[in-house]
Specification:
Elements: E1 3-9, H1 12-24, E2 30-35, H2 41-55, E3 61-65, H3 71-82, E4 88-92, H4 96-105, H5 111-124, H6 129-135
Parallel strand pairs: 1-2, 1-3, 3-4
Length: 136
């Protein structure tokens, strides 16, 4: 089974995980790491590297980060490159729809395909509520 690691500023990753649990019920193989204001770059990098090593298995780890270009994403990218033995793929812009789809689809496709699929789902999850209500 592909593992999923959520990495974010503040409590965003924890909140996504909590919401997914509320919607899907209990599941395994999904963890979160949160960057706190008092954490230094190197400390957070060490935390991400350690978590990737713990989670890495035969099918790899999908890393979902909150913001492209932010510290959680940059650290995750560095951690992935520093340990080429880890099988991981990162996707920035994590949202709840993306996470739910990743959890639901991770047993039906390989890691690289799941990462691309999550990017599509994440983009497709963005809608104007006003436009949606005007059409109904």
């Amino acid at each position: 089974m592909i593992q999923i690691l959520l990495v974010s500023h503040g409590d965003y990753a924890d909140g996504l995980l909590s919401a997914a649990n509320m919607i899907l019920g209990e599941f395994e193989g999904v963890e979160s790491l949160s960057l706190r204001p008092d954490a230094g770059f190197e400390e957070f990098l060490g935390n991400v590297e350690e978590k990737l090593s713990e989670m890495d298995g035969a099918e790899g780890v999908l890393v979902l980060v909150d913001l492209y270009g932010g510290t959680p994403g940059n650290v995750s990218s560095i951690a992935e490159r520093r340990n080429p033995q880890n099988r991981s793929r990162g996707v920035a812009g994590a949202n709840l729809g993306m996470l739910l789809e990743a959890i639901s689809s991770r047993d039906s496709m390989p890691l690289e395909e799941l990462a691309a699929h999550c990017m599509d789902v994440g983009r497709d999850a963005i809608h104007s509520l006003e436009e949606a209500f005007e059409k109904s």
